[in-house]
Amino acid sequence: MMRVIKVKVSLKIYSLEMGFSRLAMLVDYLETKLDSRVIHVFIAAPGTLNSKYLNVNNSLIIEKDVYLNARLQQTLQSLNKKFHYTLVTVFSQQNMLLTIMQQILQSLPGSVAKSLHLNIYDGNHSDVEKRQQLFAYPEISLASLMNIEEQQLSNWLKKPEIPLVNGGKQISHLLWQRFYSTTYFWLDITMLQSTSSLASELSQDIYKLPLPANKHLSQIDKLTLCKLLNIPAKVLSNLINPGLPLLWIMDSNEMPWFKPIPALNIYRESIQHEGNIIYQTFASNLNDMPSAAQVQMLPWWVSPEIATFFPQDEMKSAGDVEIWNQLKVEATSHDAAILREDYWVFNMEASMGDLLFLLSTLPTFRAKYAGEIVINLPKIYHSLALRSPYVDAVWDIDHPIKHYEELQRAIKKNKYINIIDWQTVLAPEHMQSAICTKLSISYRETEQQLILQKTVDDQKRVEQFIQQHQLLNVKTVLLHPAIGAPNRSWPQQHWSALCNNFLDNGWRVVFIGSNHNKYKQKGMPVWDDPRIVDAIDVFSPIESTILMDHCDLLVSCDAGPVALAANSNIAICALYSNIPGQYRLPIRKGKMGWNASAINRGCQFGQCGETFINEAFRIPTRPETQQYFSGEAFAKWCPNENEYACLNEYSPAHFWQAIQDFLDSDHYIPFADRLPF
Fold first, then answer.
1. For residue 424, is pLDDT > 60?
2. What mean pLDDT do residues 450-471 have?
3. Confidence check: pLDDT of 386 > 90
4. Which of 136, 377, 462, 604 would disulfide-bridge 348, Cβ 3.0–4.6 Å?
5. Angle at Cα 165 formed by Cα 161 and Cα 167, nearest 5°?
6. What per-residue confidence (pLDDT) applies to 477?
7. What is residue 373's three-state secondary structure?
8. Would you put residue 354 in left (φ > 0), alpha (ψ -120 to 50) or beta?
9. How far is it, in rounded angstroms, from Cα 656 to Cα 424?
10. How far is it, in rounded angstroms, from Cα 431 to Cα 584?
């Protein structure tokens, strides 16, 4: 058998996240970019690294998403077949190090450990604060913690396939030098004045971030850095040749769909005569934001340190540089002091469907009332809410202390509205009408509209899926067979039979839905049928609306996708139990029930939702009916001793026939006759 001779190379793995560490890693990359003896593997969020300026002969990018572990393992195993590593170097912030190490230890030969070097970076100043707290521990306590953590880390390194219990604690990231050659890059090293033995142990392995001025980098290298970071040409021009002083402002919001325009307007007014403003933000929709000659927008992953690569001609003395640095510090800290003056806070402790009903009423609200709109809601819905052009900001309802003072000001000004209560949920009218009452605005169907902003990337991802599964020019139905509230879920065996009806009649069937919900009891079934296209957990809510516009029909029970369909033109056939469909079907084209059919089911108690808070329907012999009026109790509510008979006894044959009746009616608008949304 012919022996395979592997090429000897050095392997560098960079986990690119944000700020100073990303810039330091890319500076390192430039030093070996043209070296054929070095293989570079980058882990980066989609769109944050410009691959056009990498050396394609020795560089690979692995996208940071839910498939990261599998991709990284596959890449390392593939490289291992071709190369013999003389040195493996990992560049990572603390939060990603264990993930990378696990794949290295499982995918590369054991001998690699002897040539492994770790470069560990601070992610932000919270890392500094945690470290300072550790160094403040009494020496005996700190030593005890170190010994326990060292033993856990040692055991894990022997069996890396087993998750590390309490892995990722701050102290574990200060012990890697006991196992591998390690260098630390810290934002602040003043805590090394500590007399602890750990501080002494680390003192030889610390470098300070930001980087010292990299004067050895050529102008071409500096430009390459900017291009790798996807810095817009307009901003780049100001960095290289700034006619006026630059003020670098960083917002602190970590939501990708955060809308910084209100904060940006404050800056424009307060420092409009001070020079060029560079506003750095987590917002992903930079290109959609209004710009001005004095304001340039930068994404979150760029470090302010990049400005030092292009020193301004006017600032040559040490004093001038100090002033420049102070300006940056003041501009950065000023963001934390921004206070909204005119704003409304809508408290939304509810489901996705309820949120979508609220968003549909906002065009009318905005037409009547001035001021920013802030929605206080569960974090899982933040990115969806921010896709509405009428929402200026979102707050996490589970962490009220963060915005306590602003909440109190809104309450004092009577601009805090709790949107969801039982009177709203159970009102004998469309839910958007009940929400309009809460908002003190008129309810007219012609003015109700759900508007959600979509990006080119959203469109591309869905179009690729459609082409991959050959869904063009074929009748396609989206089924949402969710397992959720018992009184609003159709039995799974019924869904299976209905699915077969569609398949037998020439329809392509796509299952949609998500297992990532606010409510733990909600989820999606697992199906093993090659005839079905599985899109469960594949798309975001926004992407789902794009998919809807490419399909003929949505079939569901009373659930979030039906409310979401208000942002599409898809035909809808929905099954309703305790709440009548005319109170929940989406309003489109100025009409409730446009291109939709509600199949209402009930029993001798009717559609019983409105009876939930009526004491007359409490059943003494059934303890669950005596519960507090909670959402969980409502999800199980059924006054019938034969629980959930309205759904359980509704056969697939009846549902199929009701769908056919709708498709044959004048209410159904064929796919070819629908205008794009």
1. yes
2. 90
3. no
4. 377
5. 90
6. 97
7. strand
8. alpha
9. 32
10. 6
pLDDT tens for 239-288 read 776 667 777 777 766 665 666 666 666 666 665 666 677 878 777 656 55
Last residue of some domain: 283, 303, 337? 337
Of all helices (H) and strands (E), which one includes residue 220? helix 219-228
Considering the domain architecture, whether residues 12 and 112 belong to the same structural domain is answered as: yes
Last residue of a domain, one of 282, 315, 337: 337
| Residue 383 and residue 355 in contact, taking contact as beta carbons nearer than 8 Å | no
Alpha carbon distance 395, 582 (integer Å) = 31
Other beta carbons within 10 Å of 536: 19
Domains: count for the chain: 4
Q: 83 pairs with which residues across the strands? A: 7
pTM tops 0.90, yes or no:
no
Which domain range does residue 332 map to? Answer: 231-337
Which of 77, 16, 7 is CA-nearest to residue 36? Answer: 7
Q: Are residues 588 and 572 in the same domain?
A: yes
Single-letter residue type at 567: N
Is 217 part of a structural domain of the chain? Answer: no
Could you tell me if 356 and 494 lie in one domain?
no
Q: Which residues, at least 6 apart from 584, have a Cβ–Cβ distance to it below 8 Å?
A: 353, 430, 431, 558, 562, 563, 574, 576, 598
